[in-house]
Automatic annotation (TrEMBL):
Protein name: DUF2071 domain-containing protein
Domain of life: Bacteria
Length: 252
């Protein structure tokens, strides 16, 4: 049996354009918080056929809070109400048997029930319905979330950041944590690879003002100890998703 190829390079620009999107949306007002985690804690939580993607031997868990804006199908206009809502996700980083890097979502809290149900049924993504809010006050952003369904009920987060200067050139680690061009997820008995594309991230340094959360532990990971190793902010990007394909033995 031949060995799997090495992971593809980390690139700040999308690996390929999405000319015929399955979904379109915008991600706005994003706060990226990351903690280092032992790859052994990550491996058991990933879909079959994927392994932890690491940076200098270390895996990372991300807590990402933002505003989803105008989710839409194909190239149709995005939906203004049902397609627009706050979201906070817990994510890990993966690489599949073809060497393709991706994101694995352990949970995605969102404040609109219908999109939560559709994403759970149609894409088998672990969306949960939560009370949520995003507040903007000058250079400060505050993101709050309290879980409703399916649980664990009451799992919560409150994140406050102050936006700093625009990064002229993110570090290699910052690219590794943000420049992700696909997700891996288990659905209908197989692991799928779902590519997406968007402009290069406009990233800012950010100061963490508060972080009170138990979403990471609720996602099956050790509760973070200490401050995040990386705190970033982005005003956002427009995103196009392609169609899912099998994670192994498929062309992207």
């Amino acid at each position: 049996m031949s060995a799997n190829p090495p992971p593809e390079p980390v690139t700040p620009d999308a690996r390929a354009p999405i000319t015929k999107p399955l979904l379109t949306q915008s991600w706005l007002d994003l706060a990226f918080l990351h903690w280092a985690v032992d790859p052994a804690h990550v491996a058991a939580l990933l879909p079959a056929g994927t392994t932890p993607d690491t940076f200098d031997g270390t895996a990372y868990v991300g807590l990402i809070a933002f505003r989803m804006h105008r989710v839409g199908w194909f190239d149709l206009p995005g939906i203004p109400y049902l397609g627009t809502f706050p979201e906070t996700n817990v994510r890990l980083y993966s690489v599949d048997e073809r060497g393709r890097r991706g994101v694995v979502f352990r949970s995605l809290d969102a404040s609109r029930l219908i999109p939560v149900v559709l994403a759970r049924i149609g894409f088998r993504l672990p969306y949960v319905w939560s009370r949520m809010d995003v507040e903007a006050d000058g250079d400060r952003r505050t993101y709050t979330s309290s879980r409703r369904w399916p649980g664990p009920r009451g799992a919560r987060s409150r994140i406050g950041v102050r936006i700093g200067e625009r990064l002229a050139e993110p570090t290699a680690l910052e690219h590794f944590l943000t420049a992700r061009w696909a997700l891996h997820n288990a659905a209908f008995g197989r692991t799928r690879y779902l590519p997406h594309a968007h402009p290069r991230w406009p990233l800012h340094r950010a100061e963490l003002l508060e972080c009170d959360e138990d979403l990471v532990a609720a996602a099956g990971l050790p509760a973070p100890a200490g401050d995040p190793v990386s705190v970033l902010y982005s005003p956002g990007v427009k995103v196009r998703f392609g169609r899912p394909v099998p994670a192994a033995g498929a062309r992207s």
